[in-house]
Amino acid sequence: MHRILRAITTAAFALTPSLAFAQGAPIKLGVLNDQSGVFADYQGIGSVIAAQMAVEDFGGKVRGRTVEVISADHQNKPDIGLAIARRWFDQENVAAVFDLPNSAIALGVNKMAAERNKVFVGSGAGTVQLTGPECTANFVHWTYDTYAYGHGIGRAVYERGGKKWFFITADYAFGHDLELQATEEVKKLGGQVLGAVRHPLGNNDYSSYLLQAQASGADVVGIANAGGDTVNTIKQAAEFGLTKKQKLVGVILGMNNIPGIGLEAAQGSYMMVPFYWDMNDGTRAWSKKFQERHPNKNMPNDMQAGVYASVLHYLKAIDAGADPADGKAIVAKMKELPTDDSLFGKGTIRADGRKIHPMYLLEVKAPSESSGKWDYLKVVASVPGEQAFRSLADGKCPLAVK
């Protein structure tokens, strides 16, 4: 009798994990970004919508468990962002965090996710430190990084006559990285960097910085910031008359900047991105669905598209057998599986967590070329993923050391 009871008990325990998994709590995914500040249009509610669309397109469940998307505004403040991530991981059982513009916060969450064996996928985060010395087995860098943007745009402008540069740079990790990457490319090609000035995030008055740029003698003023800071810098530069003698280059100029700057002022500018809503039938179809759901009827940018594609690939990894409670196992499976979606096409994820896909050089259209709102850009050239991103060896990620 005792042997029978023991056998029944053993069988019951053997079944418990699968039963618990099938009937378990929802898998929670957190979208952490700026929803009220300078990056709100870049990510904000749009990234939340993109994550929700990915979950819905996957069917709302993975291996019998529902998937829930939650979000929060980190306000571009490291203490607030890290407190949210800590609460999500420790108290609310959030399995993965996505997006995370603001590299200072991203670096902190990266360490936290590794310590707790959670998953962090950066779509809005830019710093290359995340796939360099700060890389972890729990992180994937999806959309872009400062190397791809800085080196790509540095080369494109240099080849079009921009030999002498001066930088106006956001004074935090992301801005510093952006300036560094562009500087490396310009100098490698034989150009000069005549100086740089740093400004706080969310600055309103750029007059003193612009005067220094104007007096520098540079033929290119590199704007190494993002979001509302880029819009304000370029608009004020036009008011100061810098555009009459100097070329303004937003190192991370994006589609969402154009309405604020104006097509007249922005025409002819270049940007380097891995996604544009009007590139092909697949990007157009998804983007129109996104636009219908966006409260301001915005088209998606590359970082919001990156949230969609990365959430989709995360769910594919779990569906392929990775344990939802084991962050390292999920990221390992994400690296093992080839990436394939309608927005970025086919790609791979390297050992250091870097997602590899092509980058595209886009030019802002003249007003006469545009058919209306959001018809701002045209593809000028493409760069293969293997060339667009920093090499695995140069990044010095410990995970890549054999």
Automatic annotation (TrEMBL):
It comes from the Bacteria. Residues 1-22 form the signal peptide. The keyword Ribonucleoprotein does not apply. GO terms for biological process: amino acid transport. Residues 26-365 form the Leucine-binding protein domain. Gene3D superfamilies: 3.40.50.2300. Keywords: Amino-acid transport, Signal, Transport. SUPFAM superfamilies: Periplasmic binding protein-like I. Coiled coil: none annotated. InterPro entries: BCAA_transport, Leu-bd, Peripla_BP_I. Belongs to the leucine-binding protein family. This is Leucine-binding protein domain-containing protein. It comes from Variibacter gotjawalensis.
